[in-house]
Each structure stands twice: as C-alpha cells, then as structure tokens.
Amino acid sequence: MTARVLMYSTAVCPYCIMAERLLKSKGVENIEKIRVDLQPEQRAEMMEKTGRRTVPQIYIGDTHVGGFDDLSALDRAGKLDPLLQGA
C-alpha cells in the first residue's frame, strides 16, 4: 500500500517529469496531478499551502515534500521509501 501522492505541476516542467519518473521507479502507480497552468486558482492555493511558487510541489500523504530536489534528497537519505509506504 503506497501513500497518496499529490503533485502540483505544469505541462512543460522538466522537474515534474523527473519527479514523476523517480516516483514511478519507486512503484508509485497513481500520482494525483493538479495542473496549475490550466487552473491558475490552484497555483494561488499551492503558494498559500506551501509558501513556494515553483513546480513541482509534491505531497506524500499529508507531508509536504517540496520540489524535485527535495524528493531526490529524501531518496538519497533513504527516507523516501518509508514515506511512500505510509510509515
């Protein structure tokens, strides 16, 4: 059972694609995406929730991970798998 993954993204965002690739390599089948380029009001909500204006902004369960660099750092630290397993 993997935790729910939510990603704020845009259509042409290389970091979004890399984040998605990393998550899929970890066995994440379903990434709930919110396209802030199609729904500008969602960008405002994202900025309010995360304090950041860049995409991707990734949530695993209730945890705000941050962007691709944050996700990658979590993985290197060995903390991504437990988070994805809902630990």
Which labels suit this protein?
4 strands, alpha+beta, Glutaredoxin, 87 residues, globular, 4 helices, single chain
Structural account:
By secondary structure, this protein is an alpha+beta fold. The chain has helices at about 15-25, 40-50, 70-75, 80-85; strands at about 5-10, 30-35, 55-60, 65. It has a 4-stranded mixed β-sheet with strand order 2-1-3-4, with helices on both faces. Strand 3 and strand 4 (about 65) form a beta hairpin. Helix 1 packs parallel to helix 3. The protein is globular, with a radius of gyration of 12 Å.
Short description:
Belongs to the glutaredoxin family. The chain is built from 4 helices and 4 strands, in the order E-H-E-H-E-E-H-H.
Order of helices and strands: EHEHEEHH
**DSSP strand (E) fraction?**
15-25%
Find the count of extended strands (DSSP E, 2+ residues). 4
Name the average pLDDT.
95
CATH superfamily: Glutaredoxin
Question: Which structural category do the helix and sheet elements fall into?
Answer: alpha+beta
Strand order, biggest sheet?
Answer: 2-1-3-4
The value of Rg in angstroms is 12 Å
